[in-house]
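Sharing a chain and its predicted structure for anyone who wants a worked example. Both blocks are below, sequence first, C-alpha cells second.
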Amino acid sequence: MRPLAVIGHLSRDVVAGGAPRIGGGSWHAARALRALLHDAVVFAKCGETERRAFRRQLAACGLPTAFSVGGETTGFSMSYDEHGVRTMTVEAVGEPWRADEPERALLRGVEWLHVAPLLRSDFDTDTLAQLARGRRILFDGQGLVRVPRQGPLVLDDDFDRGLLRHVAILKLAEEEAQAIIGDAELESLMSLGVPEVVVTFGLEGSLVLTRDTATRVPAHTVHTDPTGAGDAFAAAYLAARAARHPPVPAARRATALVSALLSGSAR
C-alpha cells in the first residue's frame, strides 16, 4: 500500500440533543481506515479543553497520530429528519491550520492525503499548497462552501478558486455541489478544473465524475445515525485509489465500507 494520511479538525458534536461527542473528518476517517486495516497517519487539531479526551479516543483507533492544539474546538449541533436530511448549527469555530502544521518531517513519504476541513477557514490556499507538494490531495468540499460563522450553518460559493489547483480529487455532498453550481447539471462540476469529483447523496449513493465518465454508484439503505459517513467514504475512497483501483470501483468499495460501519458489521 502507498503511504496515506488524513488531516483535519476534530469537532465537539451534539447529535439530536444528546451528550457532546468527538467528531470531525480526522476522527471518522481514522475509524474507516482502522476497519480497512490500512496503514495511515492521522493529523488532528482541537482546542485545549478537549485535548486530553480526544487524544485518548483517537489513539484507540490504533493509527499513528500527530496532534495540534490551539484556539477553540470546532463545535456543531445537528439533527436528522426521517429522510436523513441534516440540519446543523455551528456552535464554535476552530483555529485554522497553519502552513507549518504538521511538521514537514511527519509528512515525508505520504503520497495520498485526505484533507478534511469542517469549515472554509480551516485550510487556506497557501497551507493547502504546502500540503500538496509531492502528493495527491482529496479535499472535502465542506472546506469550500461552509461559512465559518456561529449560528445556523450557511453554505455559499464565495471561496478562493485558486485552492482547487492543488486538489486531485474533490468530494462533495449534494447540497455542497448545489451551493457551487446552483441548478446546473452535476456534470458541470468538471468545469472547476479538478480531474476527479465525487458527489455523495447520503443514503442514495454517489456520482463519480472524471473526464471520461459520469457514473452513479448506488448504496444500500441503512437506518441509523449517518454522522461521519461522508468522511468515512472519502477515506475509504482515497485508500482504494492509493491501491490503484479506478474511480468507480473505488466508490463501490467506499460505499460498502460505509454501509458496514453504519450497520455495525465493521468496527
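Comments welcome. The chain has a mean pLDDT of 91.
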